[in-house]
Design goal:
3 helices, about 35% helix, alpha+beta
Length: about 55
């Protein structure tokens, strides 16, 4: 997923954080876009990109 986001959003500062214990977070320019910890699930296909487009 990280590679797909970076390909589609070459101008944005997209960072994914994958850690132990199932942590998976996506931030854009320092703002949290998606957190598995907060939602207790992985994002659906296209969900992160949609959230990023809504913040632009």
């Amino acid at each position: 997923m990280a590679d797909e986001l970076k390909k589609r959003l070459t101008e944005a500062n997209v960072e994914t954080v994958e850690g132990s214990g199932g942590v998976f977070e996506v931030t854009l320019n320092g703002s949290l876009i998606f957190s598995k910890k907060d939602t207790d699930r992985f994002p659906n296909e296209g969900e992160v990109l949609k959230s990023i487009k809504e913040t632009d």
